[in-house]
Design brief:
This protein has 337 residues and is an alpha/beta fold. It has two domains: 4-191, L-asparaginase, N-terminal domain (Rossmann fold, 3-Layer(aba) Sandwich), CATH 3.40.50.1170; 210-326, Rossmann fold, CATH 3.40.50.40. The protein is 28% helix and 19% strand. The strands form four sheets. Strands 4-1-5-6-7-8-11-12 form an eight-stranded mixed sheet, sandwiched between helices.
């Protein structure tokens, strides 16, 4: 078992307590967590607790906050054998995806978890999730960013929040679970990532760099023009139908995408479907997107695509380089080909 784990409280329900004004971050969180887990101390690694200076309300998360979460992990990487990040559930999958890129080549476990019910309320799932996350953070064979929630450990950049009120709130629709929690912790070592060499980068990330647009009946090229005309926007993610289809009978859409290409906007095409992947050249309407330079997003989740595009736009030098890396799996976020 690993000897030391750092628990970073980034915010969210798991560390909230009732107050006259509603839920707010509890006082003495570190001491309370140690006391609550004291009976199981012999089964858990030694852990220290640190909180962000300004804990993040999950629904208020912005891309720049990912750098604030990554910074203390990078700064103390060599001092600990594993890490647990406590985070609000609404945007936990987005942060897990982002950390997988910012901590590229992680050679230790970074486990994100949270809670559906505040820790001090009846029936809370908080301590159970933290207990499991600490155990996974002590497993040396896990060398990646992962999400532990309910009874499952999932790759961070493959998971999505699937339910607003279930305890098993997260799922990994296009990739197998890394581990299951039953009588024993059953780790599937075949599913674990073999990380590349450590390449941590933590660039500042802009809130306005990437936009996400859901394709819907009646979508007009005016929407794409409005987004691509914004000089701050450098990347656009389309959530299209099925295997990557857009309406093919509206010339304004293709014209708008041509204009977006002219200003070197990076456009990535994902499916709206919960499971499956884009196969952009299957139908004529999708093949037309390829001719316009739209990137086939394969089986990326929207959360992983959003984080990956933010990361690449921050570290790559040209849109052409971004497009090349979007097609390649960098840290297990997509299947090759």
């Amino acid at each position: 078992m690993a000897s030391r784990v750092l628990v970073l409280y980034a915010g969210g329900t798991i560390g909230m307590a009732p107050s006259p004004d509603g839920l707010r971050p509890m006082d003495g969180f570190a001491e309370r967590l140690h006391a609550a887990l004291a009976e199981d101390a012999h089964r858990l690694p030694h852990f220290d607790v640190q909180s962000l200076e300004h804990p993040i309300d999950s629904a208020q998360l912005r891309p720049g906050d990912w750098s604030a979460i990554a910074a203390p992990l990078i700064a103390q990487w060599d001092a600990y054998d594993g890490f647990v990040v406590l985070h609000g559930t609404d945007t936990l999958a987005w942060t897990a995806s982002a950390l997988s890129f910012l901590l590229m080549g992680a050679d230790k476990p970074v486990i994100l978890t949270g809670a559906q019910i505040p820790w001090l309320q009846a029936r809370s799932d908080a301590l159970g999730n933290v207990h499991a996350a600490l155990q996974f953070a002590a497993r040396r064979e896990i060398r990646e960013v992962a999400v532990c929630f309910g009874r499952t450990l999932m790759r961070g950049n493959r998971c999505r929040k699937r339910a607003s009120s279930d305890f098993d709130a997260f799922d990994s629709p296009n990739a197998p679970a890394l581990a299951r929690i039953g009588i024993d912790l059953q780790v599937d070592e075949r599913a674990l990532l073999s990380p590349p060499a450590r390449d941590f980068r933590n660039p500042p990330l802009s809130t306005d760099t990437v936009e996400l647009l859901t394709v819907h009946p009646g979508l007009s090229g005016r929407r794409i023009d409005a987004l691509s005309a914004d000089p701050a926007v450098r990347g656009l993610i389309l959530l299209s139908y099925g295997v990557g289809n857009l309406p093919s009978d509206d010339p304004t859409l293709s014209a708008a995408l041509e204009r977006a290409a002219e200003r070197e906007l990076v456009v990535l095409n994902l499916t709206q479907c919960w499971q499956g992947r884009v196969a952009q050249d299957t139908y004529a309407s999708g093949a037309a997107l390829s001719r316009l330079g739209v990137i086939d997003g394969a089986d990326l989740t929207p959360e992983a695509a959003f984080a990956k595009l933010h990361y690449l736009l921050a570290v790559a030098h040209t849109p052409a380089q971004v497009r090349v890396h979007l097609r390649q799996p960098l840290c297990g976020e997509m299947r090759p080909g």
